[in-house]
Amino acid sequence: MTEPTRKIARQATSVVAHTAPEPEDDDPLLGFAPFLHTAPRRNSITPDLQRRFVATLAATGIVKVAAKRIGKSLEALYKLRARPGAEGFASAWDAALERGAARLEDMAMERALLGTRTPIVSGGEILGHWDKPDNALLRFLLAHRLPARYGAQAREVGPGHPVWEELAAQARAEVAEIKRTLQDEVAARAIALQTFRRRRLWRQRQAAGARAGDITDAWEAEDAEGKPQLPAWDDAAVRRARTILAEMEADPPF
């Protein structure tokens, strides 16, 4: 970024406070065909002044500053620009403005991302400085450089718009995954709870001995001692049920 030319840093808040290097003499921008006066006078805007004006305009982006630099009025410059034979000067003028605008845009992006040097003041004393990012400027630049994503167009996205459809497809996939996960969780808890109940009945039978009746259930898996086990099949629900059952055994819910 170009450095401020103001003596006091806090004054460097306008485009006037920043300038870029002027184009070199061999820059294509200065290779235009200038207006040639048929009978030049002492105050005529000569080809050399026209090139100096264009060079300053490219560096500053401000017509008034460029006019002042060559000592000519805005009225005289605009009159010259409109004269037949000044087409080359007019085109160079426009190109210089575009270059100046591009420089200002780059400067704005740099300020938005890297921040502006800002003093840290306490008790009327400057304790230091920090680079303060400009989020409002960043949002403005994003809205204009990427309007489809951050500008007014993005706020008008609706059904049928590619962005809308892409987001909708992602949402549907996420909802389907959530539903599948919930279904697996419900199945796992049902399996774990059923096995836990069977184990509770089994413990009651063990304590009752011969007086206990038989245990009948939808799951008949048992170990060698007759202790109820989880179903024999291996899937996500049973694997999850194994964890839940261990938690129930460690801290019985009832």
Automatic annotation (TrEMBL):
It comes from the Bacteria. This is Uncharacterized protein. It comes from Qipengyuania citrea.
